[in-house]
From TrEMBL:
Domain of life: Bacteria
Keywords recorded for this protein, A-Z: Cell membrane, Membrane, Transmembrane, Transmembrane helix
GO cellular component assignments: plasma membrane
Segments crossing the lipid bilayer: 6-23, 30-51, 66-83
Subcellular location: Cell membrane
Protein name: Putative membrane protein YeaQ/YmgE (Transglycosylase-associated protein family)
Length: 89
């Protein structure tokens, strides 16, 4: 699979914004640039796996991808927090 330079920039941007949003919602602060990107991209994978199975479709475009990724990242962070036992939700 070939990913162009523009596609890579869009993926990193969506991951950064989604990870930052998830960090604000779940923890109250971000995780740094690299952490936000990783959390956001992982959240996008979670959302792309989970949402079609639930029949959820938010639309197309950059904003919907950020929302998808942010919701997936929030779910991911909540599951990690539950598994680690690091506190309340």
């Amino acid at each position: 699979m070939y990913i162009s330079g523009q596609s890579l920039i869009v993926i990193l941007f969506v991951g950064l914004v989604a990870g930052w949003l998830a960090g604000k919602v779940v923890r109250g602060a971000g995780f740094g640039i690299i952490g936000d990107i990783v959390i956001g991209i992982a959240g996008a994978f979670v959302a792309s796996f989970l949402f079609p199975k639930l029949g959820i479709h938010l639309g197309v475009g950059l904003v919907s991808e950020i929302i998808y990724s942010a919701i997936g990242a929030i779910i991911l962070l909540l599951v990690v927090r539950l598994v680690r036992g690091g506190g309340r939700l």
